Amino acid sequence: MKIVASSDTNASTWGAGLADAGKALSVEIAASRADLQRLDALLADAVTTLLESFGAISALCAGREGFAVPLERAVTALQFQDLASQLIAHTRARMDDMTRIGEELDRLDASLAAGKAPAAALAESGARLTACARAMLANNLRQPVRQRELDAGSIELF
Q1: How far apart are CA 5 and CA 38, in angstroms?
Q2: Three-state DSSP class for residue 50
Q3: Which end of the chain is more exposed for a tag (fewer CB within 10 A), N or C?
Q4: Among 79, 82, 80, 87, which residue's Cα sits nearest to residue 35?
Q5: What is residue 6's DSSP assignment?
Q6: Cα-Cα-Cα-Cα dihedral of 104, 108, 113, 118, to 10°?
């Protein structure tokens, strides 16, 4: 990025959108974290209920033919919770990366608001923003779950 500063441009103009962008990013991340927290709780509750139900069904069907395969398929479907939990944890890590970028934007905005020359402020923040972006890209390359369907014996955990 090339910075061109003219004498009639003040530092507050340079940072005007940075604070808003950082705040918007923080608000969206907080909302997404809350959604993930709710999803995690819903999954845990659903899995607990299903496990209790399958345990009761298994006890009722003990010794009867024809029930083993559907119950095994149901237990395989319960592995969805493990997969979903891994995806939730991975998404939280991605959000942490985004939070760090938002924090760096806030620092850049504060530097500009304090009267620091835009080119100097961007030079200082540039290396930190680059490090944040590299961490984010590295995290995105690693996919904790590649699962697209749930069939018996098809679970990929790593």
Answers
A1: 46
A2: helix
A3: N
A4: 87
A5: -
A6: -170
Give the end-to-end CA distance of the chain in Å, rounded to a whole number. 38
Q: Give the residue among 156, 158, 150 at the shortest CA–CA distance from 74.
A: 150
Buried b (16+ CB within 10 A) or exposed e, 96-105: ebbbbbbebb
In whole angstroms, give the CA distance from residue 34 to residue 47: 20
Cβ atoms of residues 121 and 111 within 8 Å:
yes
Under DSSP, is residue 79 helix (H, G, I), strand (E, B) or coil? Answer: helix
Q: What tokens appear for 56 in the block?
A: 């009761």
Rounded Cα distance between 83 and 157, Å, is 7
pTM for this entry: 0.60
Residue type for position 145 = V
Tell me the CA distances in angstroms from 37 to 22, 96, 140, 147, one per residue in order: 22, 14, 21, 22
Q: List C-alpha distances in Å: 118 to 6, 23, 66, 95, 152.
A: 10, 20, 73, 28, 58
